[in-house]
Known about the structure:
With 164 residues, the protein is of the alpha/beta class.
Amino acid sequence: IGLTxxxxxxxxxxxxxxxxxxxxxxxxxxRKNMEENGIPYVEYIGNTLEPIIKKNKKFDIVVTNPPYxxxxxxIENMVVxxxxxxALFSGPTGYEIYEMLIKQLNVVLKDECFVGFEHADKQGKTxxxxxxxxxxxxxxxxxxxxxxRERNTFFTNxxxxxxx
Length: 164
């Protein structure tokens, strides 16, 4: 996600890109992709935003594709056999990582912010409610993937007429 955003926005904005993951293997793949594309970034190993919080970093934008599958949910063998379980399963409900991330966001977001979550196609309403519990006066919306499934939830506290 970070690589794509950097490539899309680098000509219009000054971007300081940071990535975090619990998996050293995932960070190694990320490192290879970033280096091949000449993208400067800082990497952190750790769970959710914890390594960012420890470094007292603040961000304008946070985007994430965390594990979002409930541990008892049945998914295709092709997916289970080709992805690390830690990248797929969040816990008993599938919302555990979102609950943790949303609590942590208050610590890492700058005053004007944008946040994006990727999630399963039936999780948007619950994630919206989790956001509403912690953040007030934000605009929240969802968007569909290429197959028309609701797969992303976003929020910002910057209003359209506030853009420069």
